[in-house]
Amino acid sequence: MTTKKNSSYELHYFPIHGRGATSRAILSIAKVNWKDRIQSFEAWPQDKPNTPFGLLPILTVRDSQGKMTHTFPEAEVIESFLAKEFGFFGSNAEEELEISIALSLTTMVYNVWVFHVLHSLGPVREQVLRSFQEFSLKHWVQSCEKLLKANGSNGHFVGERTSLADIKAAVVLDTFSGLKDSAMYLGEDIAPELRKVKQLVDKTPGYEAYRKSSAFQEQDETTRQRVVPWIEGFDMTRAHLFA
Ligand SMILES: N[C@@H](CCC(=O)N[C@@H](CS)C(=O)NCC(=O)O)C(=O)O
């Protein structure tokens, strides 16, 4: 852990929350030496060919001497790598398995949202959104509530410590809170355990501070300008769009 604390981390991503949100949350909760490397949209056509798959985010890790030890893409791989670096992936194989199960539920619902709901347009969108809410979202909430109750209703999926399962669920719940019908699917009466997870994660000192930072507010603003206009009915006064 000491050597990890001496490393530095740079997250290369656009000035939106999107697929950088969970990694930024992990890095700020871990309170390590990290920075955002913000990719401007204007320079992206020139920079894109220099990335492994023409996509962001990319994480770069340097040791205490500033020597690069890793640089790699893929948001979920980055999130798992960081969670393991900082002790958010359990302390034994059993905990890691339980965290992976909860994480899989959240990754699934998030990807259905991104690849089905966000990508659907026009009259089809209303139907896709309804089916997402009725099946994927309901299933996610019910499954999470069950796991969280089984763990003692303490605001954590596994044991008594914050894990990647908690952080990812908090980030994803934040996004879904902006849905027009969020009260029907995510209200206090329906998702009390998930709401507890989000409250705990959001109150973690490093993350609470990051959420108030100018960087985070800029991500909100860019999201409001560039992403929300093509998502009908999404309310950013209730949520941050982490997609
Ligand atoms: N599988 C990749 C997908 C990354 C991705 O789609 N990134 C988008 C932003 S969220 C991107 O870089 N878009 C720029 C482009 O398509 O040129 C991951 O999970 O990291």
Automatic annotation (TrEMBL):
Pfam families hit by this protein: GST_C_3
UniProt GO BP: glutathione metabolic process
Highest taxon listed in the record's lineage: Eukaryota
Domain GST N-terminal: 7-90
GO molecular function: glutathione transferase activity
Stated name of the protein: GST N-terminal domain-containing protein
Organism encoding this protein: Mortierella polycephala
Residues of the signal peptide: none
